[in-house]
Amino acid sequence: MNKPILTVNNVSKLLKKEKLEIPILKDITFSVNESEFVSIMGPSGCGKSTLLYLLGGLDNPTSGTIHFNNEDLHILKDKQISKLRRAEIGFIFQFYNLIPNLSVEENILLPVLMDGKNAKEYKDTLDELLHIVGLEDRRRYMPNELSGGQQQRVAIARALINSPKLLLADEPIGNLDSQSGTGVMELFKRINQEKNISIIQVTHSQDAALYGNRVIRLLDGEIESEQWIEKNNITHEKIGG
Predict the structure, then answer these.
(1) What band does 34 get if pLDDT is binned at 50, 70 and 90?
(2) Angstrom distance (rounded) from CA 14 to CA 32
(3) Around 107, how many Cα atoms within 13 Å sit in the side-chain half-sphere?
(4) Average pLDDT, stretch 184-211?
């Protein structure tokens, strides 16, 4: 049985604005196992993206704890959390965030270069990722020569270059047409199953959510329900946090 890779305990987040404290997340508790594919859904403003940033150590909770691989993210020093994010957590965003004057393969290798590593040592990994995302014949193209779906595939390959244990995706198909979106979701499913990488995605799309094996629904900053999915059919539902 797979063990938890991420554990969230009683996490709350308050936004302080002048003399007001606005609750964004309230006592969120759940865990994600190794090789699990979880979708977080809910209406705009329910705290989905805020939660994702907390899970990746990009922001700190007001209260509660988040453990990744038994490490409490928010007691780590800045250098430690930065190193952990680069090595073990991959990020994919709605806007692809590619460097416009770098080629496809240069964009994919960017995390390696930022770590001061030798890109030549990642040649085999780069070739494998280009094959997985179907861009072997586009490796020297520039971002403006690619479609939106192809640009997102470059972003996915970039997130995978350091062989992370966890992928965090924020509305990864939000800017794509339905055909490109389906292709990206099929790619996520393949990565999850073949690479055994845990995936947590924030999405508005019910169809996209069903590519995973669990859906967590947020409402007003709280977990409204959890649904476990098998072969795109809901098999079990838990109401409330």
Answers:
(1) very high
(2) 24
(3) 27
(4) 93
Pairing of strands 198-202, 37-41: parallel
Give the integer Cα–Cα distance in Å for 110 and 199: 21
Architecture of the 4-239 domain: 3-Layer(aba) Sandwich (3.40)
Q: Six-digit token pair at 16?
A: 């302080």
CB 171 within 8 A of CB 203: yes
Distance in angstroms (rounded) separating the CA atoms of residues 64 and 40: 19
Task: From residue 230, give the alpha-carbon distance in Å to each of 121, 161, 212, 235.
Answer: 39, 29, 9, 6
- The pLDDT tens digits of the residues spanning 127-150 come to 999 999 999 999 999 999 999 999
Burial class (CB in 10 A: 0-12, 13-18, 19+), 118: exposed
Domain regions of the chain by residue span: 4-239
Q: Mention every residue, 6+ apart, whose C-beta is less than 8 A from residue 124.
A: none
Euclidean distance between CA atoms 159 and 55, whole angstroms: 16
pTM: 0.91
Contact 41, 100 (CB under 8 A): no
Q: What sign results for the dihedral spanned by CA atoms 173, 240, 46, 67?
A: negative
